[in-house]
Design goal:
It contains nine helices and ten strands.
């Protein structure tokens, strides 16, 4: 469904992405792993069409979007949603207003239809009855679920997640990963997830791509990653495991 072919992005004489190539099949959950600054979040911007690569192509369902104008990209972009690392909720709006914001701005739905869709989305993320609360009145884990509710309001085919469980305690992190799997199973959503948390990557990923300094150094199944003899892969996995052990003390 999504194909990146030889994507290169340069900024300030530094290669942010270097010959990045991978595919995400329809209904698949693809996890992008790697150290901070490796270029993972940049890939999401390329898929959304927010950045144009210096070279290479991005295709969605066989349509190359790389050189399309903003107007030409809009129908494809509307099939995608983004869950931001910081949630990006509007502090002055209620939970219900946040979830329904883009529906009111970019659809012809009536107020009643928007309210029904908001209730449906909040029910899906197990937050019924929170419509009138402000973001400051709910926990960090609940805010993440509100962000997911907003992301699914348009019934997207693709959802992009930027570090969806970072900063959450294990219980809330598990809730978020379960929602990702629920979206795949019940709505057949295609997902691309940026994370550095190995536990979450293995929990939800059908395939994993490991990025280092803008280049793909591994692309395949989790069990293959664990068996890799590549020095960088082994070192990355050992550091992540050590960090996880320290956090569990």
């Amino acid at each position: 469904m999504i194909a990146l072919e030889h994507i290169t992005v340069t900024a300030d004489d530094r290669k942010i992405l270097d010959d990045v190539t991978f595919r995400v099949e329809k209904g698949e959950t693809k996890v992008l792993l790697g150290p901070s600054g490796a270029g993972k979040s940049s890939v999401l911007k390329i898929i959304l069409g927010l950045w144009r690569p210096d070279s290479g192509t991005v295709s969605v369902d066989g349509t190359e979007i790389t050189r399309l104008s903003e107007r030409e990209q809009m129908p494809i972009r509307r099939r995608m949603s983004m869950v931001f690392q910081g949630n990006a909720l509007f502090d002055s709006l209620t939970v219900g207003e946040n979830v329904g914001f883009f529906l009111r701005e970019h659809s012809d739905m009536t107020d009643a239809e928007v309210r029904d869709r908001v209730d449906e989305c909040l029910e899906f993320v197990n937050l019924p009855g929170t419509t009138d609360l402000l973001p400051e009145e709910i926990s960090g884990g609940m805010k993440k679920r509100v962000a997911i509710a907003r992301a699914i309001a348009f019934h997207p085919e693709v959802i992009l997640y930027d570090e969806p469980t970072t900063g959450l305690d294990p219980i809330n992190a598990k809730t978020v990963t379960e929602l990702v799997m629920k979206l795949k199973q019940e709505r057949r959503v295609t997902s691309v997830i940026v994370t550095h948390i190995l536990r979450d990557a293995f929990a939800v990923g059908d395939s994993l791509a490991l990025i280092n300094e803008g280049s793909i150094v591994f692309d395949g199944a989790a069990r293959t990653l664990l068996a890799s003899e590549d020095p960088f892969v082994r070192n990355f996995l050992s550091e992540i495991r050590e960090e996880a052990n320290l956090l569990s003390l």
